[in-house]
Design goal:
heterodimer, A: mainly alpha, 16 helices, about 0% strand, disordered N terminus, B: four-stranded antiparallel β-sheet, 9 strands
């Protein structure tokens, strides 16, 4: 995709120092040795889409098995490896690489830079990923099958696996290395490569969201690497980090894991916040309400994410003061998040709204993510959490924030910027059909899981009591339709890559898209901003 | 103006920031390991007696409260399907706070090799663990068992008379772990 070929008419007087930079490579080498941010962004996005469908196929296995009580299609160990690998693929394979792909494509275009700051490292950080996931998925063909101890890898259960255990650990090391390199690249690009005059407080909000996310990644991905390294040495080298017999404590693993894990959930949602903060103003034809408040809210959420981790483990036992602290600090996150939700709503207030596919997905994000936020508040209440812990209520909660939150925002961003990438408009009718099927059936899929959880159905179990059958059927049905309707997404993208009505530079001509990315042609030229753009009121966010 | 972006100066400009960010990432990795001692310290500070003091011998003075009875329940478990017959010789014992008692647990090595084992204690409810004090316990050190060896092991304990008045029942449980790495070191 993105076979961009129009040059943007820059002068080439200064190209002698860097010849590969100005040619467009061809063949497989273009992708293997890619250093162009648009090519790497495309590879990230395509990789993410493949992982989304593989992880989705695993979800279909889970929902098929849960169609009826009892065991029908798969044995329990395979079911557990489905839940484990579904999570790892969706988090580390689909959502995170999609955001890095969007960062690659859009951040240089939004800050007026010719490329990412560190193009060679950019190439490494992408190409590590296919190897990481090959390693992870190859474990399905080893003795003992795929990893089945849950994506959280709690010891001692995670240590009782077969060959899948070291394969999973090494895959996670590689994914972490890839994310850290990607994050360093984003920070250096935003800090050092902005066009002259583009001050930090004129930066598009997507760049701000990604800048903060990148710092979170550098702060916590190494902690996860440390935690899984400790698992590895406990298993193979006789250390006792988590082994009580040697004075260790398995609960400590949960503390270290969630010290990574809670910032991780914000890594999965802050770029989504940035995306909808771009789209809602465009289709409301108003500047974003409270631009600076949005930045401070994002930074506050990032800070708070470091001091709330133990709300994932209220039931493991901790002093009352600890429970109180983690309960209160968790609830505090509702304040900056509420600021964001109200700012989006206020942006739309008295705007002249139109409902193109990116706007539809952003509105669904706003509505459904907030539902996920509310169930999160319920889970934050320590005494109530004892009932919800490890039930389908938790599953419903995090799928609301991750599927109708993060994934919907990614789809919104693809529908927003796809004409900029390909130079073609896509089929609005097909995209809207994709939206309505997704928005309706994501609720059919996940809303009943709240009821199941409150009624006591445990998560990660292939069998259930017959009283849960009805809502499981509804949920499975929703899952099948939601899953199938994602094929429409691929059809829209393929059609748009192949052809379609010519998109203008601004793409959304009758709306008000802001930012430098709309000053380059559609499709964006292979090399853009080789001379830095001149920053004016018109081509940046005019909120100040 | 375009030199602003040329690769040589660009690299130069980026180096300091990249080095700082890599140092940040390495620092985060180190911090992950620093959480291990930090966790031990915090557990000691906030310990109710279960994690740290439960594995240390106490010096106590007997001052029996003969008008009060507390029931001590004994539980035993073997994790990871170890090859042990491990059980308490008593199911429960009525005790006076402030008086020293002795209980025994029996372990029998059913595996075909000599094994070193480690008992890990736990008190329930955990909030009163600090009132359950051991002067001597087989859980204080690893236990060596030859092939087919079985023996009784002793724990001597005292319930602190300051035990809150609403508590009349305390459960002492032991998990009996294999410690192959200790066996290898010997």
């Amino acid at each position: 995709m993105a076979h961009a070929h129009t040059h943007d008419g820059v002068n080439h007087l200064d190209h002698s120092h860097d010849d590969h930079h100005h040619d467009k490579p061809t063949g497989i080498g273009r992708w293997l040795y890619a250093t162009n941010h648009k090519d790497i962004g495309t590879m990230y996005l395509v990789f993410s889409l493949i992982m989304f469908f593989m992880g989705g196929a695993m979800a279909m296995v889970i929902r098929a098995e849960l169609w009826s009580p009892g065991l029908q299609f798969v044995d329990p160990l395979f079911f557990n490896s489905m839940t484990t690998t579904h999570a790892l693929l969706m988090i580390f394979g689909a959502v995170m690489p999609a955001f890095v792909g969007l960062a690659n494509w859009m951040i240089p275009l939004q800050v007026g830079a010719p490329d990412m700051a560190l193009p060679r490292m950019n190439n490494y950080s992408f190409w590590i990923l296919p190897f990481a996931f090959t390693l992870l998925l190859s474990s399905f063909f080893t003795a003992g099958g795929g990893p089945a101890g849950g994506w959280t890898m709690y010891p001692p259960l995670a240590l009782q696996a077969g060959t899948s255990f070291p394969l999973m650990i090494f895959a996670i090391h590689l994914m972490g290395a890839s994310s850290i390199m990607g994050a360093i690249n984003v920070i250096v690009t935003i800090m050092n490569m902005r066009a002259p005059g583009l001050t930090l407080l004129k930066l598009p909000i997507f760049c701000w969201a990604w800048l903060i996310t990148a710092y979170l990644l550098i702060a916590v991905m190494p902690v996860l690497a440390g935690a899984v390294t400790m698992l590895l040495t406990d298993h193979y080298f006789g250390t006792s980090f988590f082994n009580p017999a040697g004075g260790g404590d398995p609960v400590m693993y949960q503390h270290i894991f969630w010290f990574f894990g809670h910032p991780e959930v914000y890594i999965l949602i802050l770029p989504a916040f940035g995306i909808v903060s771009e789209i809602i103003p465009t289709f409301s034809r108003k500047p974003l309400f409270g631009y600076e408040a949005m930045i401070y809210a994002t930074a506050s959420i990032a800070f708070l994410s470091f001091i709330v981790w133990a709300h994932h483990m209220f039931t493991t036992g901790m002093p009352l003061a600890g429970q109180m602290f983690f309960m209160m600090s968790t609830m505090l996150i509702a304040v900056p998040t509420g600021v964001k939700v109200f700012n989006w709503t206020t942006t739309m207030w008295k705007g002249s709204l139109t409902f193109e596919p990116p706007m539809l997905f952003s509105l669904a994000f706003l509505f459904l993510f907030t539902i996920g936020g509310f169930s999160g508040l319920m889970l934050a209440i320590a005494p109530a959490d004892f009932q919800y812990q490890d039930t389908y209520f938790v599953v419903a909660h995090f799928h609301y924030v991750l599927v109708s939150g993060a994934v919907f925002a990614i789809m919104a961003s693809v529908y927003y910027w796809l004409p900029k990438w390909t130079g073609h408009m896509y089929s609005m009718a097909l995209a809207k059909t994709h939206f309505w099927l997704s928005a309706v059936f994501v609720n059919v899929l996940f809303f009943p899981q709240h009821f199941l959880g409150l009624a006591g159905m445990p998560r990660r179990i292939p069998d259930y009591n017959t009283q849960f059958t009805d809502w499981n059927r509804v949920s499975s049905l929703g899952g099948f339709v939601f899953g199938l309707s994602q094929i429409l997404f691929v059809i829209v993208i393929i059609q748009c890559v192949r052809g379609g009505p010519k998109a203008s530079a601004k793409v959304w001509d009758d709306a008000t898209p802001e930012g430098l990315e709309w000053t380059v042609d559609s499709p964006a030229p292979y090399h853009s901003f080789e001379t830095p753009p001149v920053i004016t009121e018109e081509n940046t966010h005019p909120s100040h | 103006m375009t030199e602003h972006y040329t690769v040589p100066t660009g690299k130069h400009r980026h180096r300091a920031l990249v080095i700082r960010l890599i140092a940040f990432a390495l620092g985060s990795f180190a911090f992950g390991f620093a959480l291990v001692p930090l966790y031990s310290v915090l557990c000691k500070v906030w310990d109710t007696g279960n994690r740290w003091y439960g594995t240390q011998a106490k010096h106590v003075v007997e001052r029996p409260a003969v008008d009060r009875w507390v029931t001590i329940e004994f539980l035993s478990s073997v994790p990871n399907a170890g090859h042990w017959d491990f059980r308490s010789n008593l199911t429960e014992l009525k005790v006076h706070p402030g008086k020293l008692y002795t209980a025994t647990f029996f372990a029998h090595n059913l595996s075909p090799v000599a094994v070193v084992a480690q008992a890990v204690p736990s008190i329930a409810p955990s909030s009163v663990a600090k009132y359950f004090q051991k002067t001597e316990c087989f859980c204080f050190k690893p236990q060596y068992f030859g092939i087919d060896e079985g023996r009784d092991m002793t724990v001597r304990f005292i319930v602190d008379p300051d035990l809150p008045a609403d508590v009349d029942r305390i459960t002492l449980s032991y998990s009996f772990f294999d410690r192959p790495q200790v066996a290898a070191a010997n």
